[in-house]
Amino acid sequence: MQSLKEQTITILTVSFNSSLHLKRLFYNIINKSDKPDNINFLVIDNTNGKDNKLYSLFDKKDNVKIIKNNCHSSQRSISHASGLDNGLKNIDTDFTLILDPDIHIFMENWDLFCIKKITLNEKTVIGAPYPQWKLGKVHDYPSVVFMFFKTDLVKHFCKTFYPFSSPLLRVINSIIRKIVRLGGIANKKNMDRFNFIRSFCSKLEKLTGISSPDTGKEIIEQFRKNNFQSIVFDTPYKSDLIGNNEAELSKLAEDFEVFLYQDDPFMTHMYSSGVYHWRTHNSSNLKFWQTLIYDVERKILKVS
Questions:
Q1: CA 52 from centroid of its chain's CA atoms
Q2: Residues 227-241: what's their mean pLDDT?
């Protein structure tokens, strides 16, 4: 049996002109890992070779494999799912970590943390759920923003990351989402400021269930069906982080996504989507995001 130190991980990420993020992301992954030599990187190029920058970004020593993916759909979730399906079938390491390119990990030895959890129970999935303000989505299982699992168990599901249900159910879900989100009133900013909106919409969401299935829907359903233990990070609002030692995290949570594990910062997700319910004035500002990350690392995590 392999020791904890010997077990290998493939980082799977889908790139659509994401060269801006990937070099930074991979440095962050390696820098915060316990055993960097056991980490492989697999990038699925959803431009199918058109992103020339991607192929000159890494050195051979970076241990990065790039696979071109010819996805015919322009729909973001469908093309993302196609890339993940292509990627998973090309992974043979002990573990897989699916990541969005625009994340940053704070936790030291994140790899050892995840492997230890799965060693206790191999039917475990670990990661970042959709934040609580993303109403109608999955909050009790990890999303493909950060999803860590034992590779062979998920490959044996023989399921796709394709996100959508039948056309009729998509129409019904669209109507339900409008109700749960109060026609747009229940956005991130208002739910942060007003507890009564947060509470009311949470109750509505529990009644209506998942009305906004996203990439990995079938995989998550299979986790649930097979009684996988789910270890998910907390997703605080800005107002949840007001305290003597949390000012930097609070600033980060205002415009971006912050994930905690047992009250300690685990990671952040930039999430620069244009979806109006969740975007803010600075949510597409990469430089601002990186400045706030630096502040958290320096002041909260005591990194010089």
A1: 25
A2: 96
Question: In terms of pTM, does the model score above 0.85?
Answer: yes
Instruction: Judge whether 63 and 93 are in contact, CB under 8 Å.
Output: no
Spatial neighbors of 291 by CB under 8 A, at least 6 apart, are none
Q: Is 177 within 8 Å of 212 (Cβ atoms)?
A: yes
Residue (of 198, 299, 209) closest to 247 by Cα position: 299
What six digits make up the tokens of 304? 């010089």
Q: Is 145 left (phi over 0), alpha (psi -120 to 50) or beta?
A: alpha
CATH fold label, 4-164+213-232: Spore Coat Polysaccharide Biosynthesis Protein SpsA; Chain A (3.90.550)
8 A C-beta contact, residue 180 and residue 277? no
Structure tokens of 148?
Answer: 């860590």
Token representation of residue 290: 């990186």
Q: Is 5 exposed, middle or buried (0-12, 13-18, 19+ CB in 10 A)?
A: exposed
What is the domain partition of the chain in residue ranges? 4-164+213-232, 165-211
8 Å CB contact between 97 and 148: yes
What rounded mean pLDDT belongs to the chain? 91
Token output for 7: 């077990």
Q: Cα 78 to the chain's mean position, in Å?
A: 16
162 and 218 in contact (C-beta within 8 Å)? yes
Q: In this predicted model, what pLDDT tens digit does every residue of 59-81 receive, in sequence order?
A: 776 789 999 998 876 678 889 99
